[in-house]
Amino acid sequence: VITSVSALEILDSRGNPTVRVFVETDSGTRVSASVPSGASTGENEAIELRDKDNSRYNGKGVLDAVNNVNRIIAPAITGQPVSEQVHIDRIMKKLDGTENKSNLGANAILGVSMAVARAGAESAGLPLYRYLGGNTARRIPVPAMNIINGGEHADNNVDFQEFMAVPIGAPSFREGLRSIAETFHRLKTLLKNRNLATGVGDEGGFAPDLENNEAAMDIIMEAIEQAGYKPGKDISISLDSAASSFSPDLTSKYELKWSGEGKMNSDEMISLCRDWIKKYPIVSWEDPLAENDWNGFRKLTEKVGQSIDIVGDDIFVTNTKYIAKGIKEKTANSVLIKLNQIGTVTEAIDAVQMCREAGWRYFISHRSGETEDTFLADFAVAMGGGQLKTGSASRSERIAKYNRLLEIEMELGAMRCIIGRK
Ligand code: PGA
Ligand code: ZN
After folding, report:
1. Of the four, 26, 179, 238, 289, which is 20 to 30 A from 67 by CA?
2. Where are the alpha helices (DSSP H) in 227-310?
């Protein structure tokens, strides 16, 4: 049973405060878990509680969330069997009493939820991926490595947030990771040779100023080839436009920084996507349209959903309420899963389960603000793979997850996931 729950304000990879939770049990288990934090957040995400005390961390402190763990959640779950994940998550939801966890804060609740899962695994003597995924969990997700950063994750002029290299042809996770890391290094050389910036963005991808969004694709194609791989056969591309971040009304207007692309409506954005899908080896496209552009999402999915994954992030926010609507209306065919968008481990698993039942894919994801916690790697294996976004081949908060997956693969001789709809 749980004997102690406590929280600490720590820093994330952007140097902003976040919550770390410690859980102890009577069997001597003592574990911790740390909560990530997004920048391009959806309107309907569970609420991350910030102190708004401008004398500390520009108002971004999380001492209220820490206090909520120590004073409200801890007494309510102390004495509960640590294996009762669903029950404990339910207690916290009820204690909070709001739909979006704005009372106690999703950062407080998720920190406890993750730490309880880890304590449960430890008490059962199991690795976390096996504890959460069962004895048959042995699929390693295909990594989508974010090698060019734009949008709200960098200060360059690239509108689309993430350009990711996906090793679709690799025989194992280890070899796949090598191929995309080699591509990342080749890309650096190419940028350097053209006097373009090689500094990195929030998720560790390069963040150069480029002629337009398409130039990012072209230079990635070159990097893949020069690294000795075939685009579309060995390595494909996943994109995250994070289109809400350049849509002032979140529905129908898109304002790109480029004179050629410039201001667009939903249909024009759809036709840009279709042109790119014809031209480049794209396997999945996340948030190609803004979070309230359900119609646009549906139209694009109808046109290209047979051949690529249309992934909803800000539109579904890992919430079964919105995912169910999406499934009914054929709005997309894949969901981005972010633990802190919904706020408990149980509800994130519910979202994955809903995808599975509908024959939709799911994409497990980090946030742009991360910590050294590797919970996500185990969680992705527990969920049976799919794709995983956990950043680039730089920045240790990203690499930590890749390294954990290498360990799991070694432990399991694990099966690799297969992706792609063609
Ligand atoms: P975020 O970015 O963590 O800043 O929301 C990740 C994503 O949009 O997928
Ligand atoms: Zn996204």
Report:
1. 26
2. 266-279, 294-304
Which ipTM value was assigned to this complex? Answer: 0.98
What is the CA(287)–ligand 1 centre distance, in A?
Answer: 10
214 an active-site residue?
A: no
**Residue spans of alpha helices (H) in 167-212:** 173-193
Q: Could you identify the residue written with the tokens 């069962």?
A: 134
362, 334 Cβ separation under 8 angstroms: yes
Instruction: Choose the catalytic residue: 60, 101, 188, 338.
Output: 338
Radius of gyration of the chain (CA): 21
Question: What's the rounded Cα separation, in Å, for the pair 338 and 366?
Answer: 7
Distance (Å) from CA 6 to ligand 1 centroid? 28
Burial label for 28, CB within 10 Å (0-12, 13-18, 19+), is exposed
Buried b (16+ CB within 10 A) or exposed e, 277-314: beebbbbbbbbbbbbbbbebbbbbbeebbeebbbbbbb
Which residues are found with C-beta within 5 Å of the ion, ligand 2? 240, 242, 313
Residue-averaged pLDDT of the chain: 96
In the three-class reduction of DSSP (H, G, I as helix; E, B as strand; rest coil), residue 226 is classed as: helix
**What is the DSSP-derived secondary structure letter of residue 47?**
P
Q: Give SS3 for 107.
A: helix
Q: Any idea what the Cα angle at residue 248 is, between residues 332 and 292, rounded to 5°?
A: 25
Check residue 420 and give its pLDDT.
55
pLDDT in tens, 311-362: 999 999 999 999 999 999 999 999 999 999 999 999 999 999 999 999 999 9
The predicted structure's pLDDT at residue 222? 98
pTM exceeding the 0.90 threshold for the entire prediction: yes
Cα→Cα distances 88→10, 113, 230, Å: 24, 8, 48
- Polymer length in residues for the chain: 422
